[in-house]
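Bench notes, afternoon.
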Amino acid sequence: MATQYVDLTDEGVKYDPPTLSPSVPPVVKPGDTVIFRVINIPATYTISWDNSSPLQNTGSFQVNGSSLTPYSNQEVSTTASAATYPFTVSPDLPVKSGGPPEYPEESGGSHGGLEVSPN
């Protein structure tokens, strides 16, 4: 089974291995591991699926960039249908006293997705 990383950065969602274009979601298969990880930002992110989730954990979940383990391992469900599964990443950003979030470009959240391909 393969591993796909979804990196949550101050520039938005990035994939490793990368896709041909940032707007094209990576292809994963049932049983693959998807690791959501926060890169160099001391913030908590909530990942919410826009419609349904292809993962075994079907609900929203959080990844905390301030913790010792700033990632979340998820497995693509063996019952996931072949489809594109868009998600929204909403940051809970640190706010300077009386000021805007430290990363204003991320204050509205980012979008990404996973493309599930049949076995």
